[in-house]
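Two records follow; treat each independently.
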Amino acid sequence: MATFDSDITTFGPELPAMFDGMKLAAVATVLYIIVRCLNLKSTTAPPEITYQDTPLSRYLLKSCPMLTKEYIPPLLWGKSGHLQTALYGKMGRVNTPTPCGVRKFLPMQDGATATFDLFEALGDHSTGDDVTMVICPGIGNHSEKNYIRTFVDHSQRQGYRCAVLNHLGALPNVDLTSPRMFTYGCTWEYAAMVGYIKRAFPQTLLVVVGFSLGGNIVCKFLGENRSNQDRVICCVSVCQGYSALRAQETFLQWDQCRRLYNFVLADNMRKLILSHRSSLLNMTSSNIGDADMSRLYAATSLMQIDDSIMRKFHGYSSLKEYYEKESCVHYIHNVTVPLLLVNSSDDPLVHQSLLDIPRTLAEKMPDVIFALTHHGGHLGFFEGAVLFPQPLTWMDKVIVEYTDAICHWEKGRPACQKSSRQHMNSFLQNTGVTLSG
């Protein structure tokens, strides 16, 4: 018994030390997880640029230092693509301005009513030209979203008029006038907005800008018909996935929590569709029925929603056909205007395999630049010193910087060269020639 007591006495003083060791191990584990999750060991670097060596690309890389200098996200959390994406999704931007615009309503042939908001420039453009940015937001987004408002305000102050499409069914206070909503690659509403701008401002030059799903729409729009490229001086696409068919399998994987994002996006899409339930069900021309709505309630992924609801707006017989026909990958090689494609390596929504599409395009086609940042998430691209992000993001600034450079390039070209692209587009359109991808 005495021996047992002495063993306890001997062991007793070691307990506090053991607990201290456990605490240190727990702290070390937490710190390790934080470092891994926040990707703090990742280094900042300039974007990876893929392009062909042409006079225009050399000029652009010289005139756009943001494409060649390192992008520096906020130190404590900016290297996490998940936090960049989450912060964009929840907050949009910080200190968001409120640009003043006019809402336009455009009746469509099928009875739908497209809407867009028009914002006039707040000063003269540096070239003295009239330039309009025609902007297509991301999935289910519109001109009132914070990231759009921030970009519009910045562009206005640099002398750009801005026209922002409100995706059909996305505005909470605008009812549907036909049994149809926006889809992944429908360009009808965007084309109507561009047509209005061309008629209302005959002298304006057009800059085409698309974010996420909007990037797919604008690239598809330009490639569908060469006349769509008339008066367009460049196109910028940010964080799109290029091919829905290739993306659908990756969106069901748990890698980078992609399956979780899929569920969240599907839930948001379901709520948006259900907010227009009466319009989609009660109109005589609707091909959406109660059974489709029942499948919608049970859907846990975007693919299930696309199959039960979205593809039926345009009469696609299968999900595969819907994704094939609505993806810009089959049209983008027809775009002849300068093209800037921007993606982030840590975008949790866009799988790395999809980035082979823009990389290959930039390797094969002149005047196409593919910029891939190490950090930025999905439409995040926040900048800042340690903790708090700046109101303007790297994305906002690089789009305007690139567009400014294109405007000055066009301004400096002889008139005969300016018209050559338009003549070529008209010739190819009339002869039915298609460029090889």
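The next record belongs to a different protein.
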Amino acid sequence: MCVDAVLRWLEDWAAGVNWFAFLTIPLFTGIVGWLINASGLWMLFKPVTFVGVRVPGLREVAGLLPRKAQEIPGWMDGGLGWQGIVPARAAKMGSIAVDKVIAKLGTPAEFYAQLEPDRIAEHIVTVFRPDLPALVDEVMLREHPRLWRDLPRGLRQAVVDRVQAQLPGVVKTITDEIGVHIDQLLDPKIMVIDHFRANPDLVVRVFKDVGQRELNLMVSFGFVFGFLLGIPVAFVDQTWHVWWLLPLLGVVVGWVTNLLGMWLIFDPPEEKRILGIKVQGLFLRRQSECAEVYARIIAEDVITLERIGDFLMDGPRGDRTRQMIATAMRPAIDRAAGPLRPAVNVAVGRRRYDSIKTSFAAEAVGRTIVPFKDVEFSRQQADRIRILLAQRTKELPPRDFVEMMRSAIKEDEWMLYAHGAVMGAAGGFLHLGVFSWGWVPWFS
């Protein structure tokens, strides 16, 4: 009796079904799901810089909106437009990269040790030595031109030779001092944040180079998820025949499609077994391979000898670095003067002699650090940093590893879900227009 009732209900239901519309709903939701994830990927990365218009008063109004709304790129600056979520959060990505990953991969002292300070010292001596005679001549002509001109050529050359002889020891002292105080001189967090903020395209490169395979899969699975979710939607639509159900369910399909796409990539971080099947975020399954890519990018573009040199000399603690180098350079003059030091003191006076030492040290500071900024030498040293980063990244717990990529955008994922919901609703209205409202004549 019950079976007969069910069969009669199915016959009545089937008689009222628009089968063409029914069969096209999953196809529609599949295509919309693909478009949602493809356009969501575009929203993540493009454009690298803000594109839009400034709207008077928007900045003040945005300040009154809920915090989530304030996170929409451009609004808090009074701009109506769009900037990719990832480049818009470049500074945040840098902060998280340090807190969650780089800080766990090594201390500033460990990174500096990998750069081989002894090789740095040798390179500084090699680069600095040819300029030393001109530097000594320049300082002496400025500080005490008469004395320097009156000295016989042989004595002047002797001074230069003695200074050059002191150079390797002085430079070794400088590189050792930098190593001892590197934790106070170098702040990786500031260095990385500033670099990411100034180069948002680098953050995009990190995401794409490390996770491009998973991102492509997310787009492909957008069709699969959309198609599968469209099957129950087709049954509901053709059962109740209420026009607003399709757009409303389209919102759900669009939201869930993006949600499933993100889950597919990042969750669960730890490997689990469900009915004997391995379940783990796709991105986590390639941790070893992704670690190599991530380490290469960071070693070549972020934590480099060149950038460390820039930060040491021109960063917020640059004055301390310069003072430390100058302090190490001053004894070179005393040692260069050797037995003649008392006579020189009498000839030029103690104050002028100290001024010569100070002036020489100040002039030498910039030239001493120049080899840090040697692009080719920095590139040669990058491989050691890459090896260290790759090794430590591979050893990270999966949960920490996934935070490297996801944490910077996690708070902004709602924009992707909202975008999916809007497109899902639009797909529902489009299907209604084509198959129910006769927007296209041959379907009416």
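Discussion point: The first helix runs from residue 2 to 15. How would you locate this feature using only the token line?
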